[in-house]
Write a structure and sequence with these properties.
By secondary structure, this protein is of the alpha/beta class. Helices cover about 40% and strands about 20% of the residues. Strands 1, 2, 3, 4, 5, 6, 7 and 8 form an eight-stranded mixed beta sheet that branches.
């Protein structure tokens, strides 16, 4: 899978670099419709964060231009943040955007270089391009294993939902079965798993809390 995964990640990096070049460091630059849906998405993902203080660390896998850090810093100003992305262009944009933020660090990679309290992955399981369902599911499971290894207290991720309207589905996108991934997470990572599928977008979010 290693060679196939590297090829897959190269394809994804090129796809998002093109979006960034076209739309800049905006939600459309990371292939989202707009800022409102992006904020809704971040709010769901961050429900995995449980501390009463803002002194925690978080890895953002597929960080794009670092918009999640901006969302987090308003609520948790002491949060220590690592942004990870396979697109060098995205990381450059994130570094420029957050140059004055000492709590944020960004690296071009497919995985975090540290273990943090929490891990988040937003949108990285959506754009499969020409990959088969089997290849993409293997990629998702491997990435979730990685999130589990690099998160002490819990992690969260989102996917486009297989319950999307058939006439709105796009062939280059991956629509995951929420029940299948809930079962995988429940059996593989923790007994404390939540499936959020009630926030008005054609997607779902899964929260895994470590025991």
């Amino acid at each position: 899978m290693d060679n196939r995964k590297n090829e897959l990640l190269d394809e994804v990096a090129a796809y998002y670099a093109e979006k960034l070049a076209k739309h800049g460091d905006t939600p459309r630059g990371v292939d989202w419709n707009g800022e409102e849906s992006q904020t809704i998405r971040f709010a769901q993902l961050c429900k995995v964060i449980r501390p009463k203080s803002s002194d925690f660390s978080l890895n953002d896998l597929g960080c794009g231009y670092g918009a999640l850090f901006n969302f987090l810093s308003d609520k948790y100003p002491q949060c220590s943040y690592l942004g990870v992305d396979v697109s060098a262009e995205m990381i450059m944009a994130a570094q420029l955007r957050n140059a004055a933020s000492p709590n944020a660090r960004f690296i071009t990679s497919s995985e975090p270089d540290i273990i943090s309290d929490y891990g988040v992955a937003s949108g990285i399981f959506n754009v499969r391009l020409g990959r088969t369902n089997a290849d993409w599911h293997e990629y998702i499971q491997g990435t979730l294993d990685q999130l589990d290894r690099t998160s002490r207290l819990g992690f969260s991720f989102n996917c486009l939902t297989s319950y999307s309207d058939e006439d709105k589905k796009q062939s280059y996108l991956y629509y995951a079965d929420p029940c299948q991934l809930f079962d995988l997470c429940k059996r593989r990572y923790s007994r404390q798993v939540a499936l959020l599928h009630d926030y008005g977008l054609y997607e779902f979010t899964i929260l895994i809390t470590k025991e």
